[in-house]
TrEMBL record:
Sequence ranges assigned to domain Peptidase M4 C-terminal in this UniProt record: 403-565
GO cellular component: extracellular region
One Gene Ontology molecular-function label: metal ion binding
Protein name stated in the entry: Neutral metalloproteinase
Localisation per UniProt entry: Secreted
Keyword Hydrolase recorded: yes
Major subcellular location class: secreted
Family annotation (PANTHER family): BACILLOLYSIN (PTHR33794), NEUTRAL PROTEASE B (PTHR33794:SF3)
EC number(s) from the headed UniProt entry: 3.4.24.-
Chemical reaction(s) catalysed: Similar, but not identical, to that of thermolysin
Region Disordered, annotated ranges: 446-478
FTP domain span: 84-134
Swiss-Prot/TrEMBL keywords: Calcium, Hydrolase, Metal-binding, Metalloprotease, Protease, Secreted, Signal, Zinc
Amino acid sequence: MKKKSLALVLAAGMAVTTFGGTGSAFADSKNVLSAKKYNEAVQSPEFISGDLTGATGKKAESVVFDYLNAAKADYKLGKKSAEDSFKVKQVKKDTVTDATVVRMQQMYEGTPVWGSTQLAHVSKDGSLKVLSGTVVPDLDKKEKLKNKNKIEGKKAIGIAQQDLGFTPKYEVDPSADLYVYQNGEDVTYAYVVKLNFLEPQPGNYYYFIEADSGKVLNKYNTIDHVTDADKAPLNKEVVKQEAKTAAKPVTGTNKVGTGKGVLGDTKSLNTTLSGSTYYLQDNTRGAQIFTYDAKNRSTLPGTLWADTDNVFNASRDAAAVDAHYYAGVTYDYYKNTFNRNSINDAGAPLKSTVHYGRSYNNAFWNGSQMVYGDGDGATFAPLSGALDVIGHELTHAVTEYSSNLIYQNESGALNEAFSDVFGTLVEYYDNRNPDWEVGEDVYTPGQSGDALRSMSDPTKYGDPDHYSKRYTGTSDNGGVHTNSGIINKAAYLLANGGTHYGVTVNGIGKDKVGAIYYRANTLYFTESTTFSQARAGLVQAAADLYGASSAEVTAVKQSYDAVGVK
């Protein structure tokens, strides 16, 4: 959400899966629209759709490679074959269109190209219909790629640590992976160094270290602190043994308890009775849900939340009650709406830790679980008390298991906006005072009527609502929490309708917005998706679901016209 989120980087292995989601009588290859989007900055196509090839009857991967070999000049692959230039990472069936979706990674002489992933849709007759994702061109002409002298990854880690300026307590050992990296007009080898830690303050840094010179080319932190107030000190008292033993799942009987949340409302809770103790462990969903107590320390996950009578009404229980209940609501939304089995679509457990640190004004996803601070009582109440906050943060994990949008510049703003969109849709799903504001239930508890961000009017809190007003600087990872307002406004208009910058949008309702946005994020977006590419993917997703000539396709186009994204 605005001013608080964590990008989770997950490596995808080769897999064959099936994608379900929202079905439609209109969904077939006849509804593929003809489109071609060109990325001017990279000088390469970023989204092409239509009858790209005839029917071949070939395997999907072969169809894609044949097309790319024939289109080498367009993609500027030089003398390299498509087979040498791309690695198939995943193949899955889209049950909506019956197409086979091939996910690829651009390679150069065996080294992956940072941010260059592609998605190809091949119909059941073996014809290529969609190719989404920018390809970094002319790699064989890049002088710096001819330099084979490289520092060791260990040295790159040291350079990143020195630039960081302090010695953190790592949650995960630092890593350095070699990539081909485009840095402005230059393309070079670079180590992507990842530094993940909780102390002295949580951070998940990405450093890009040039492999021959050791120069820091780029860096960003994918945990963004909410406000200066969250610099409040953590409790450094850490009991490691407690964390190891008390965090284990318990074996017992499924029970239903009750509890009062942060706002004083009573909720039903799925718990586990083990011995004479009730635990906030939900075994009733495909993905188990666990809620832990950090006891105002920085230990994760902490102690599995326990109670003696299955009534969680103590004031200290409130943050845990909401974290547990709202994680279940978010799971149910994705499962019941899109048939998605947890954040990774493979039944990953959902773990939440509350009472993290002291007066900690933040909530974040650390790569394996949710973490919630209690707030300082002025800027924030306990952050687990807002359903849209929890839906937002868990959607970051859904995104990283799907499109894996890079958390910088336009792709990062899309990442943030999609978390806002689905945080709001989860709020509507549970019908818990839903609105198009973000974080209003926990932000400035002493002042009513305000929020962190408004999707209906982003300018209310200083965010742009049109592409012409976008932030173009480097702060905030290139404006990920700011330029998200442009996409938020488009989503709001698509759901509710309205006239913006002289463009009238005919609203289609929030449920269809969810269906279109989810499909685009899982089947058309790639790691470096731009706003323009996102528009193309959303339009095609609408065509898949509702027909190429549908009112829904027209409305998606209108909504992006209204915010100046072509």
